[in-house]
Specification:
Distance between the termini: 28 Å
Number of domains: 1
Order of helices and strands: HEHEHEHE
Strand content: 15-25%
CATH architecture: 3-Layer(aba) Sandwich
Helix content: 25-40%
Length: 95
């Protein structure tokens, strides 16, 4: 939500994804112009909603959603993977 608010304050059109439709209002109040339910494959929805994709993506979940985030990005766009809350990148030996 902080990222949405910061991006909006800099004039960006903000798209947020959530796994819960109950969070739509919260994300909109934080500055999201578009809120999508993330079913793990939102790239096609993003491309249709935003006429071809997103210029900049902030990936907060990690490797479990990174491939889809990359597919959401326009040519010459960028993806910044900042979070790692998904567990597909963790070693089975790590605590």
């Amino acid at each position: 939500m902080a990222a949405a608010a910061i991006a909006k304050s800099h004039g960006a059109e903000v798209i947020s994804a959530t796994r819960s439709a109950a969070r739509f209002g919260l994300l909109r109040s934080a500055g999201a112009d578009h809120v999508l339910v993330d079913d793990g494959i939102i790239a096609e929805t993003v491309k249709v909603t935003l006429d071809g994709g997103i210029q900049k993506v902030l990936e907060l979940v990690g490797t479990t959603t990174l491939a889809d985030s990359l597919q959401c990005t326009r040519r010459q766009g960028s993806v910044c993977m900042t979070g790692m809350v998904g567990d597909s990148g963790r070693s089975k030996n790590s605590a």
